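Figure caption, in words: inputs first, then the predicted bound structure.
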Amino acid sequence: MKRVIVTGGTGFIGRAVVEELRRRYPEAEVIAVGSATVDLADERAWFEWLGEVREGGPVDHLIHLAALYKAGDWPVHHPATQFNVNMKLNVNALEGWARFLPEAKLTSVLSYCMYPSLPHAHPEEELYGHEPEDYLFAYAMTKKALLIGQRAYRQEHGLRSASVVLPTVYGPGDSFAENSHVVGALIGKFVRAARSGAREVEVWGDGSQEREFLYVGDAVDGIIAAALRSDEPALNLGMGEARSIAELAQWIKDAAGFDGEIRYNQDRFVGVKTRQLDVRRMRDTLGWTAPTSLPEGIARTVRWYEAQLG
Ligand SMILES: NC(=O)c1ccc[n+]([C@@H]2O[C@H](COP(=O)([O-])OP(=O)(O)OC[C@H]3O[C@@H](n4cnc5c(N)ncnc54)[C@H](OP(=O)(O)O)[C@@H]3O)[C@@H](O)[C@H]2O)c1
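Bound structure (NAP present):
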């Protein structure tokens, strides 16, 4: 890699992608784009910015992570905002790529919320011909639109691209506030409770919902591997196994050294029952597997968050 643009390069996963690219390719120019760099939803500002970047020479990779998404029940209350903003981010990313960086390979990052709520590991074929979960409909459809857009730009302009579909990503650099994604939220709660001597920690749901989790360092490694070596229009990138929230909470409790009780609150919104990726294509075509086990990744993240708290 010589010159790379990472949209969403100021976010949780994007920051880690940028850091790893700079570590692996010290000679490369890695350009991180966040909303303070340029508003990607504003076509004119984005094209102007790309024009300036293009004057500095060709770009060989565009890694597209920018998105508007929040955890918990936020998507239930903001489907129109999610639809509007994410459509603009994706449509502008595609057209800017074709006009200003046609030599670059685009690698986009999708989410397993695009899959339907079926009780088995989702193969990539299920991205089409099935409806995503109702409360994730708007967001999931903007990701599907991106996938279709990549196909269209490949067909009409001969541009090169790949996509990866990620499960729930966690790790150092995540948000640990209460309203964050499940792993960060629980690590935040358990670590703070262990420090304050609280007697119990509340976990949303009954603990039986299942999710697949991927350590951020592994997600970054897989995204870079796909950018370099995958021509698959969509490739699931994960551990290929789902774990229950009860198991997750117990591992986090142990890693945080919390000796109080876990209280399950079944009145809170918890989303779909189970979600898991079928990762056979990833193994066959990319020869890649995620090396970090969930307990190990949790322990590392807990240590990182404890160090942040001081
Ligand atoms: N986290 C997960 O568990 C997970 C799972 C599956 C897929 N993904 C996908 O991975 C990607 C990154 O996720 P993340 O968790 O790292 O998200 P994040 O922390 O919320 O970061 C979002 C990024 O998008 C940028 N962005 C948003 N609106 C923008 C705009 N109008 N103009 C320019 N930049 C804008 C943000 O910039 P600022 O912060 O500077 O505003 C930030 O860098 C997303 O596409 C997401 O769908 C994430």
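The first strand starts at residue 3 and ends at 7.
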